[in-house]
Amino acid sequence: MSMAIRIPRHGGPEVLEWQAVDVAPPAAGEAQVRHHAVGLNYIDVYHRNGLYPLTLPSGIGVEGAGEVVAVGPGVVDVAVGDRVAYAGGPVGAYAQVRNLPADRLVRLPDAISFETGAAMMLQGLTAQYLLRRTYRVQAGDTILVHAAAGGVGLILCQWAKALGATVIGTVGSDEKAALAQAHGCDHAIIYTRERFADQVKAITGGAGVAVVYDSIGKDTFMDSLACLRPLGTMVTYGNATGPVPPLDLGLLAKMGSLYVTRPTLFTYTAKRSDLLAMSAELFEVVQNGTVKIEIRQRYPLSDAAQAHRDLEARRTTGSTILLP
């Protein structure tokens, strides 16, 4: 028997239940992983509350790091004893032990701890595709990062700064502003005190930014469009305040022939070759110190409900991990 968080129905943090579960031997193509750490991400909230519905009852969680303890027939990508990490489906990471497709696992370099591995994979791979593929940031670009003191935000700020960009970030407090600025954010806008679109225009002399990276969703979408330069790119990759409403595409023409995209990590990593290449680039920038993974909160896995409450209340900064 092993322990895991299960959800019998969609709802608030109270639906997260700590239960004993049976873990079968891994099937063909699967590996069994004993977690040392599990990542907490906002997509977990969407799975829990039903914005992204699951087939219930269900496990939850999409990111973890640990050791391979068994493999099923036909597995060639990993072996027993390998240190591994992963980000993406199938859900079920909130568990001490689990089975998952072996081709979704990436070997974790010895220089990167299990805790860092669990904290960096989903957020770090997200930052990788946002900066290097969705809109390829170049030296001299000015960019806007929402939630700049969050897990993805801190990675985006550091990595974009290393690429030669000027980074504008939005945050909710002076403390978060200081944290973002310590991680490469050139201009931190406290959105609770000032309208960020006005501040971006002031900072850029009215020119606007090349790209907006927006994980907030409904509350920031229209003002984010107003921050873009002509031919700028709006990247909406999260829904912390709810989904973006339907958009009149004619507005994109009027506002400067803008681009809008809604990417997902799961599309970018669907091919194992892409997953490995993206992971290698992420591991490189972490190991050489370009990007530091800030684990700011740790919770027992059994206390996942409190972790969700704190995440939704915006009481967290940087990355958060759950410890089995």
TrEMBL record:
<keyword id="KW-0521">NADP</keyword>
<dbReference type="InterPro" id="IPR002364">
    <property type="entry name" value="Quin_OxRdtase/zeta-crystal_CS"/>
</dbReference>
<dbReference type="InterPro" id="IPR011032">
    <property type="entry name" value="GroES-like_sf"/>
</dbReference>
<dbReference type="Pfam" id="PF08240">
    <property type="entry name" value="ADH_N"/>
</dbReference>
<keyword id="KW-0560">Oxidoreductase</keyword>
<dbReference type="InterPro" id="IPR020843">
    <property type="entry name" value="ER"/>
</dbReference>
<dbReference type="InterPro" id="IPR013149">
    <property type="entry name" value="ADH-like_C"/>
</dbReference>
<dbReference type="InterPro" id="IPR036291">
    <property type="entry name" value="NAD(P)-bd_dom_sf"/>
</dbReference>
<protein>
    <submittedName>
        <fullName>Quinone oxidoreductase</fullName>
    </submittedName>
</protein>
<dbReference type="InterPro" id="IPR013154">
    <property type="entry name" value="ADH-like_N"/>
</dbReference>
<feature type="domain" description="Enoyl reductase (ER)">
    <location>
        <begin position="11"/>
        <end position="322"/>
    </location>
</feature>
<dbReference type="Pfam" id="PF00107">
    <property type="entry name" value="ADH_zinc_N"/>
</dbReference>
<dbReference type="InterPro" id="IPR047618">
    <property type="entry name" value="QOR-like"/>
</dbReference>
